[in-house]
Structure formats: structure tokens, C-alpha cells
Design goal:
The chain is of the alpha+beta class. The protein has 2 domains: 168 residues, Aminopeptidase, CATH 3.40.630; 146 residues, Aminopeptidase (3-Layer(aba) Sandwich). It is 36% helix and 29% strand. It contains 11 helices and 17 strands. It has a 15-stranded mixed beta sheet that branches. Strand 13 and strand 14 form a beta hairpin.
Length: 390
């Protein structure tokens, strides 16, 4: 079983609750810290904090205030100290919730995060062997549950190794398309390629029609633009006969909280193509430091679709990232064909899947059986025949 890290020591103002020793590494649990406490924890990491936008204080705070309660989840932060200096070296945001009869430990995600990994001190990031030790200690201290299930673990956090990716209990789980620093630096040369040439031509036509590209920065304007994005997305999904997961009350509240935030470190960025007050297309990104990730895109009136505003805005979001020093830009999870047109590099993803009870084992066996059945069906659809048994 995974060890329970919640001691009985007195709770202090910073909401630290006890700790657990793993050799010389101390792991401490911080119960639902406020945004200010999250920022203090992150800033206490020597050399600064290294993480994806989905582990930023703003993202974690909005998640634990809005998404976790709606999902019946509990949330906390684990911190691990470096054995030589005893300074904080790594943090891991954690949530616990029920998936049917199975109790699950994971990270703040539930479909809202595209990249998962620990928060590392920049000093620790230069010591990958020690970073793995600290992550081993954090996973060992997660708490009691039937299953640990963390998805969308990429090999890198920006340009640094993601120690969760290398844990023995991870399994292969799809991929993610990313522009590396060298790709972003040479993006202008890609305008010779069909998709970039098309985007440049269509953007010029949109500008001639009175459409401008804007970064929406003011909270009130961000809220209005987000509301339009959600309505446009809902209309689009309804026309396709598909359920829109963003209509969930907790998720809407999560995005509204980020849109309304005055925090200068707010990870939510919104770009829009607008003609006066009309929103032609919108893209929402999560960005922190030199990492950015597209998360939502919507298009307005169908009359604009001949000018491909979605394609134009995706290209403009890449250029926006490049111009702001971003060194790793992703279109998010999934390897859809439209994403592959832009020339991004495919990175593998892994999934930390660790059953710790009979119910957890049963869940994993059922999941693997379902995945195997899906793979057989996909093979039959592609080839017309079932794969041979190995």
C-alpha cells in the first residue's frame, strides 16, 4: 500500500500538516493552501520554480476552489526537501476523488490539464538522478487509495527532464505535439509551407475586412471574451450532436475565475480575431515562463469560415509565443490531423498507473481489456482483418 503522509502534528498558518521521512528526504503535506500560500511555496524553491502552466499557482488555486468541490475531490500539496541542503526541492499538487467504487489519487486535471509533472526547483532540475529520488519519495507519500492514476506525463517540462516520466510504474499513453525552441526560432521559414502560406494570405484578407488580432488582457474583457468562446463552443458541439464537457459547472467556474483574475502571473492568455465588437475567433492558452499550451479554440459566425480564422489564429498563437520568448509550445493532447499540418514534433506521453488494492487491480485489468478491444477494432477498421494473436 502507499504510505499515508498525513501526520498528527499541529497545523500551522501555512497549513503544513506533519511530514514523513524517506531516507534523508522529508515529505510534508500542505492542506488546501491559499493562492498566497501556493505562491510562497513555489517561490521558496531554490533558483525558482520550474513547471508547466498546469502546475502554476493560479491554475492549482482555481482548480481546488472550483473543480475539486464540484467533483467531490480533496486537494493538497506535497513538498519534498533535498537531502543535502534540506531546502525544498520539489512539489506535487494532489487530488483524491472517487471513480465509481474506486478511490483515486491523481494531480489537478480531470480533463483540464494537458501536461502533468512535478514542480521542480531549478537547482534540482540540473540534478536528474536526485530529481527522480525526490519524485519517488513524493509518489510513496501520496496517501492511501485504490489507485494512483496520473495521465499526460510528457518526457520534458519545457526543456528539462520530467522525472515522473521515468518512473517504473508508468505505461505508454499516446503523445503530444510540441514546437521546440529551434522550431519556433525558424517559424518564419515555414511560411513557404502550404498551411503557413494559407494562414498568411487569409490573415491579410481578414485584416482587409476590418478584423484585427488582439491579446485580451483586462479581466472584464477576458470574461466577456471567454463567455463568447463558451457560447460559440456550445453551439458548435450542439450542431455536431456532441456533448460539450465545458458546460460542467465546475469547469465554467474554473475558467471564469482565471479570466477574472488580476494576478500578473495568471496562466490564462486569450487571443482573439475581432472586428470592432464582433469576435471572429478566439484561442485560449495556458502559459508560464517559457512554456505555452493551447487549450481552447472557437469560431464565430459561419460567414467567416471561408477565411479559415481558426487556422489563422493557431498560426498567430505560435508567432505570439515565439515573440514572447516561449521555448516550448504545444497544441495540447491528441494527435489530430489538423495539428500535424503545422510541423510540430511528436513527444510520447506516459501514464502513472499504480493499483494498490484489489479494487484498483480490477480497475486496471478492465481498463487494459478495454484498450486491447479498442486496438483490435482500430486494426480491423484499417486493414479489414483482426490482428494475429501473439
Amino acid at each position: 500500500m502507499i504510505a499515508d503522509s498525513s501526520g498528527k502534528a499541529a497545523v500551522t498558518s501555512g497549513s503544513c500538516e506533519g511530514g514523513r521521512e524517506d531516507g534523508a528526504i522529508r515529505v510534508t503535506r500542505h492542506e488546501q493552501p491559499s493562492l498566497d500560500s501556493l505562491k510562497a511555496l513555489w517561490s521558496s524553491l531554490p533558483g525558482g520554480a520550474l513547471h508547466t502552466p498546469f502546475q502554476s499557482p493560479g491554475f492549482v488555486d482555481a482548480f481546488q476552489r472550483h473543480v475539486a468541490p464540484a467533483a467531490g475531490a480533496r486537494s493538497w500539496i506535497l513538498s519534498a526537501s533535498m537531502p543535502d541542503t534540506h531546502e525544498l526541492g520539489a512539489l506535487l499538487p494532489v487530488i483524491a476523488y472517487q471513480r465509481g467504487p474506486v478511490s483515486v489519487l491523481t494531480m489537478p486535471d480531470l480533463g483540464l490539464a494537458d501536461q502533468n509533472g512535478p514542480v521542480l526547483s531549478r537547482e534540482l532540475a540540473a540534478r536528474p538522478h536526485l530529481a527522480k529520488r525526490l519524485c519517488d519519495a513524493l509518489v510513496a507519500a501520496l496517501g492511501t487509495a485504490d489507485l494512483v492514476d496520473v495521465q499526460k506525463i510528457g518526457p520534458l517540462i519545457g526543456e528539462v527532464d520530467n522525472p515522473l516520466f521515468h518512473l517504473a510504474s508508468t505505461v505508454e499513453a499516446g503523445g503530444i505535439l510540441v514546437f521546440e525552441a529551434e522550431d519556433l526560432a525558424t517559424i518564419e521559414t515555414r511560411f513557404g509551407k502550404s498551411v503557413y502560406k494559407e494562414a498568411r494570405t487569409k490573415f491579410r484578407k481578414l485584416q482587409q475586412a476590418g478584423v484585427n488580432l488582439v491579446e485580451v488582457k483586462e479581466p472584464a474583457e477576458r470574461l466577456a471574451n471567454l463567455g463568447m468562446l463558451l457560447r460559440q463552443r456550445a453551439d458548435r458541439f450542439a450542431s455536431l450532436g456532441r456533448e460539450d464537457s465545458l458546460q460542467d459547472e465546475g469547469r465554467v467556474a474554473f475558467y471564469r475565475a482565471l479570466a477574472a483574475s488580476h494576478d500578473p502571473d495568471n496562466p490564462l492568455k486569450i487571443l482573439a480575431l475581432k472586428k470592432e465588437q464582433e469576435v471572429v475567433a478566439t484561442v485560449a492558452l495556458m502559459a508560464h515562463g517559457d512554456i505555452a499550451n493551447g487549450v481552447l479554440v472557437s469560431m464565430g459566425d459561419p460567414s467567416w469560415r471561408r477565411l479559415s480564422p481558426g487556422t489563422v489564429l493557431l498560426v498567430q498563437s505560435i508567432l505570439w509565443a515565439r515573440d514572447r520568448g516561449i521555448r516550448s509550445f504545444s497544441f495540447g493532447t491528441g494527435l489530430q490531423a489538423y495539428k500535424q499540418r503545422f510541423g510540430a514534433v511528436q513527444r510520447p506521453c506516459r501514464r502513472l498507473l499504480l493499483p494498490t488494492s484489489l479494487k484498483g487491480n480490477a480497475f486496471v485489468k478492465a481498463l487494459r481489456a478495454k484498450q486491447a478491444a479498442r486496438a483490435i477494432l482500430e486494426t480491423i477498421q484499417k486493414t479489414g482483418q483482426a490482428p494475429r494473436a501473439s
